[in-house]
Amino acid sequence: MTDSQTDRSSRTASETAPLLRIEDLWKSYGDEEVLRGVSLDIERGDVEVLVGPSGSGKSTLLRCVNRLTEVDSGHIYLGDVDICAADTDPNDIRQQIGMVFQDINLFAHLTARKNVMLGLRRVKGMDREAARERANEELDRVGLGDQVDSYPAQLSGGQKQRVGIARALAMDPEVMLFDEPTSALDPELSSGVLEVMAQLVEEGMTMLVVTHEMRFARGGATGITFLDDGQIVERGPPEQLFENPEEERTAQFFQSISHE
Ligand SMILES: Nc1ncnc2c1ncn2[C@@H]1O[C@H](COP(=O)(O)OP(=O)(O)OP(=O)(O)O)[C@@H](O)[C@H]1O
């Protein structure tokens, strides 16, 4: 058993307040109700995988958690901070809740190290040397210790994605959000990214992940949330959703993706 698994199983009652609480979230675009009363508690060390059909609202939910999308109503708390409150600075939230997107948006004119250093310098206010050292450490953590001086054009898609992960980790986030981090990558390039994500699971990182990688969901998730038409249909441990779902819609969904 790893340390992180021990930590999860030995949590005491006083420590069980969720790290992230999503409460009755509603979001529409025009007439389309995309999130319809979503509530979800994520505890420290949880790895929650969001699955659901295309257009069910998975990305929108992640974007609300990172304040990239404003909610219509409902609340999201990180600890006791209301992320959605008008006086909460989105930039503070984005340091504490790192996000990795499907599209890899690195600065092309900066090396991997400088891409990671940018936030450390500008947001954390670190001096150049400290930021350089920290960037090296984070790139090492994602297996790119030998690529710190490479420019994005010299890196594979999977390596670029790992630079993006290192950049988010450098902010010391409490939670990491992943929005289909491997779906733009060929299978062989995905594996390095999935290995880094598995390593973060081992380290006990709290993660909310949208992915079609069902092997990661089965092996790495502490919970699976099945979202359909903007509502949570079922949530439970991976064994339940994969093997013994309570809801017919969940069973149909997992059957449909097993034929893909
Ligand atoms: N900025 C936007 N403006 C208008 N409609 C949007 C916007 N973002 C998302 N939508 C719509 O909201 C619905 C849910 O989109 P969302 O991307 O959250 O779904 P998803 O479950 O992540 O889908 P996918 O698996 O295809 O990425 C879709 O119908 C989408 O077209």
Automatic annotation (TrEMBL):
Which terms in the GO cellular component ontology are assigned? plasma membrane
Keyword flag Plastid: no
Which cell locations does it reside in? Cell membrane
Keyword list (alphabetical) reads: Amino-acid transport, ATP-binding, Cell membrane, Membrane, Nucleotide-binding, Transport
For this UniProt entry, the molecular function terms from Gene Ontology, in alphabetical order, are: ABC-type amino acid transporter activity; ATP binding; ATP hydrolysis activity
Classify the source by domain of life.
Archaea
Output the PROSITE patterns linked to this UniProt entry. Answer: ABC_TRANSPORTER_1, ABC_TRANSPORTER_2
Q: Does the keyword 4Fe-4S apply?
A: no
Q: What is this protein called?
A: ABC-type polar amino acid transport system, ATPase component
Organism, per UniProt?
Answer: Natranaeroarchaeum sulfidigenes
